[in-house]
Amino acid sequence: MGDYMEEKSDNIRRQMIYYFVFAALMILLNYIIQKINQLWIAPMGCSNFGHIDLIQTLYCSLEPFNMPELIGSIIAVGITYIVKFFLDKFIVFKKKSMEIKETSQQFVKYFLFAILTTVENIGIQFIFTNFIGTPLEISFIIALSIGYLTKFYLDKKYVFVDRDREISNEE
Protein backbone atom coordinates (compact mmCIF):
# COMPACT_ATOMS: atom_id res chain seq x y z
CA MET A 1 0.00 0.00 0.00
CA GLY A 2 2.92 2.35 0.78
CA ASP A 3 4.39 1.89 -2.70
CA TYR A 4 1.02 2.68 -4.27
CA MET A 5 0.66 5.90 -2.26
CA GLU A 6 4.22 6.93 -3.05
CA GLU A 7 3.67 6.23 -6.75
CA LYS A 8 0.40 8.21 -6.67
CA SER A 9 2.16 11.11 -4.92
CA ASP A 10 4.99 11.06 -7.48
CA ASN A 11 2.42 11.03 -10.29
CA ILE A 12 0.60 14.07 -8.89
CA ARG A 13 3.92 15.87 -8.40
CA ARG A 14 4.89 15.13 -12.02
CA GLN A 15 1.50 16.30 -13.25
CA MET A 16 1.76 19.54 -11.27
CA ILE A 17 5.25 20.27 -12.56
CA TYR A 18 4.16 19.79 -16.18
CA TYR A 19 0.94 21.72 -15.57
CA PHE A 20 2.77 24.75 -14.15
CA VAL A 21 5.56 24.64 -16.74
CA PHE A 22 2.93 24.63 -19.50
CA ALA A 23 1.08 27.45 -17.72
CA ALA A 24 4.26 29.54 -17.70
CA LEU A 25 4.84 28.74 -21.38
CA MET A 26 1.25 29.77 -22.19
CA ILE A 27 1.76 33.11 -20.40
CA LEU A 28 4.85 33.63 -22.57
CA LEU A 29 3.01 32.52 -25.74
CA ASN A 30 0.11 34.86 -24.88
CA TYR A 31 2.55 37.76 -24.56
CA ILE A 32 4.30 36.88 -27.85
CA ILE A 33 0.98 36.66 -29.74
CA GLN A 34 -0.13 40.02 -28.36
CA LYS A 35 3.21 41.65 -29.28
CA ILE A 36 3.07 40.21 -32.81
CA ASN A 37 -0.44 41.60 -33.15
CA GLN A 38 0.59 44.99 -31.74
CA LEU A 39 3.79 45.37 -33.77
CA TRP A 40 2.94 43.76 -37.12
CA ILE A 41 -0.56 42.39 -37.67
CA ALA A 42 -2.62 45.37 -36.46
CA PRO A 43 -0.52 48.02 -38.24
CA MET A 44 -0.45 46.00 -41.48
CA GLY A 45 -4.12 45.00 -41.28
CA CYS A 46 -5.31 48.50 -40.46
CA SER A 47 -3.16 50.15 -43.14
CA ASN A 48 -4.40 47.71 -45.81
CA PHE A 49 -8.01 47.16 -44.70
CA GLY A 50 -8.74 50.02 -42.27
CA HIS A 51 -10.76 51.83 -44.94
CA ILE A 52 -13.46 49.12 -44.60
CA ASP A 53 -15.92 50.42 -41.97
CA LEU A 54 -16.45 47.05 -40.25
CA ILE A 55 -12.71 46.42 -39.88
CA GLN A 56 -12.12 50.01 -38.78
CA THR A 57 -14.80 49.75 -36.08
CA LEU A 58 -14.11 46.23 -34.84
CA TYR A 59 -10.33 46.08 -35.16
CA CYS A 60 -8.58 49.38 -35.92
CA SER A 61 -10.47 51.82 -33.70
CA LEU A 62 -8.78 53.29 -30.65
CA GLU A 63 -11.94 55.02 -29.38
CA PRO A 64 -13.60 54.38 -27.00
CA PHE A 65 -11.36 51.30 -26.53
CA ASN A 66 -8.07 50.12 -27.99
CA MET A 67 -9.62 47.51 -30.27
CA PRO A 68 -6.35 46.10 -31.69
CA GLU A 69 -5.22 45.38 -28.13
CA LEU A 70 -8.59 43.88 -27.15
CA ILE A 71 -8.81 41.69 -30.27
CA GLY A 72 -5.15 40.65 -29.88
CA SER A 73 -5.80 39.70 -26.27
CA ILE A 74 -8.90 37.67 -27.18
CA ILE A 75 -7.01 35.84 -29.94
CA ALA A 76 -4.03 35.17 -27.65
CA VAL A 77 -6.22 33.81 -24.86
CA GLY A 78 -8.14 31.62 -27.32
CA ILE A 79 -5.00 30.16 -28.85
CA THR A 80 -3.32 29.55 -25.49
CA TYR A 81 -6.44 27.90 -24.01
CA ILE A 82 -6.64 25.49 -26.95
CA VAL A 83 -2.92 24.70 -26.90
CA LYS A 84 -2.89 24.25 -23.11
CA PHE A 85 -5.98 22.02 -23.25
CA PHE A 86 -4.22 19.56 -25.57
CA LEU A 87 -0.94 19.71 -23.62
CA ASP A 88 -2.85 19.01 -20.40
CA LYS A 89 -4.96 16.26 -21.94
CA PHE A 90 -2.18 14.32 -23.62
CA ILE A 91 0.96 15.11 -21.62
CA VAL A 92 -0.08 16.14 -18.11
CA PHE A 93 -3.00 13.77 -17.58
CA LYS A 94 -1.96 11.23 -20.25
CA LYS A 95 -5.37 10.80 -21.84
CA LYS A 96 -5.20 9.03 -25.17
CA SER A 97 -8.80 9.20 -26.33
CA MET A 98 -9.47 11.34 -29.40
CA GLU A 99 -13.21 10.67 -29.46
CA ILE A 100 -14.95 13.87 -30.56
CA LYS A 101 -17.76 13.62 -27.99
CA GLU A 102 -15.45 12.98 -25.03
CA THR A 103 -12.90 15.62 -26.09
CA SER A 104 -15.67 18.17 -26.68
CA GLN A 105 -17.14 17.55 -23.23
CA GLN A 106 -13.69 17.82 -21.68
CA PHE A 107 -13.01 21.07 -23.51
CA VAL A 108 -16.31 22.64 -22.40
CA LYS A 109 -15.59 21.74 -18.76
CA TYR A 110 -11.98 22.93 -19.16
CA PHE A 111 -13.13 26.26 -20.60
CA LEU A 112 -15.80 26.77 -17.90
CA PHE A 113 -13.23 26.12 -15.17
CA ALA A 114 -10.87 28.53 -16.95
CA ILE A 115 -13.54 31.24 -16.71
CA LEU A 116 -14.16 30.42 -13.05
CA THR A 117 -10.48 30.52 -12.13
CA THR A 118 -9.96 33.70 -14.17
CA VAL A 119 -12.63 35.37 -12.02
CA GLU A 120 -10.83 33.95 -8.97
CA ASN A 121 -7.50 35.37 -10.23
CA ILE A 122 -8.96 38.81 -10.84
CA GLY A 123 -10.65 38.83 -7.42
CA ILE A 124 -7.52 37.77 -5.57
CA GLN A 125 -5.37 40.28 -7.45
CA PHE A 126 -7.93 43.04 -6.80
CA ILE A 127 -8.08 42.27 -3.07
CA PHE A 128 -4.31 42.09 -2.67
CA THR A 129 -3.65 45.25 -4.68
CA ASN A 130 -6.52 47.41 -3.43
CA PHE A 131 -7.15 46.30 0.16
CA ILE A 132 -3.82 44.91 1.32
CA GLY A 133 -1.64 47.31 -0.69
CA THR A 134 0.46 44.58 -2.28
CA PRO A 135 2.42 45.68 -5.37
CA LEU A 136 0.79 44.64 -8.66
CA GLU A 137 3.57 42.19 -9.57
CA ILE A 138 3.30 40.34 -6.26
CA SER A 139 -0.52 40.31 -6.44
CA PHE A 140 -0.30 38.98 -10.00
CA ILE A 141 2.04 36.14 -8.98
CA ILE A 142 -0.06 35.19 -5.93
CA ALA A 143 -3.33 35.30 -7.90
CA LEU A 144 -1.97 33.25 -10.81
CA SER A 145 -0.42 30.69 -8.47
CA ILE A 146 -3.66 30.18 -6.55
CA GLY A 147 -5.71 30.19 -9.75
CA TYR A 148 -3.55 27.63 -11.52
CA LEU A 149 -3.46 25.42 -8.43
CA THR A 150 -7.27 25.56 -8.24
CA LYS A 151 -7.53 24.87 -11.98
CA PHE A 152 -5.15 21.92 -11.73
CA TYR A 153 -7.29 20.21 -9.09
CA LEU A 154 -10.55 20.99 -10.94
CA ASP A 155 -9.10 19.64 -14.21
CA LYS A 156 -7.76 16.53 -12.47
CA LYS A 157 -10.99 15.79 -10.61
CA TYR A 158 -13.67 16.82 -13.15
CA VAL A 159 -12.20 17.26 -16.64
CA PHE A 160 -9.59 14.54 -17.20
CA VAL A 161 -11.18 11.86 -15.05
CA ASP A 162 -9.77 8.33 -15.05
CA ARG A 163 -12.38 6.01 -16.53
CA ASP A 164 -11.28 3.32 -14.06
CA ARG A 165 -11.85 5.68 -11.14
CA GLU A 166 -15.17 6.80 -12.65
CA ILE A 167 -16.37 3.16 -12.96
CA SER A 168 -15.25 2.25 -9.40
CA ASN A 169 -17.12 5.31 -8.04
CA GLU A 170 -20.33 4.16 -9.75
CA GLU A 171 -20.23 0.67 -8.18
Structural features, described:
The protein has 2 domains: 1-94, no CATH class; 96-163. The two termini are 22 Å apart. It is 86% helix and 0% strand. The protein contains 6 helices and no strands. The model is unreliable at 166-171 (pLDDT under 50). Helix 1 (2-49) crosses helix 2 and helix 4 (100-132) runs antiparallel to helix 5 (136-159). It has 171 residues and is mainly alpha-helical.
How does the overall form come out from the CA principal axes?
A: globular
What is the count of structural domains? Answer: 2
**SS-derived structural category:** mainly alpha
Distance between the termini: 22 Å
Average pLDDT, all residues: 90
Task: Give the total of beta strands.
Answer: 0
Q: Roughly how much helix do the residues carry, as a percent range?
A: over 70%
How many H/I helices? 6
C-alpha Rg (nearest Å): 20 Å
The biggest sheet amounts to: none
Strand portion: under 5%
The residue ranges in which pLDDT falls below 50 over 5 or more consecutive positions are 166-171
Order of helices and strands: HHHHHH
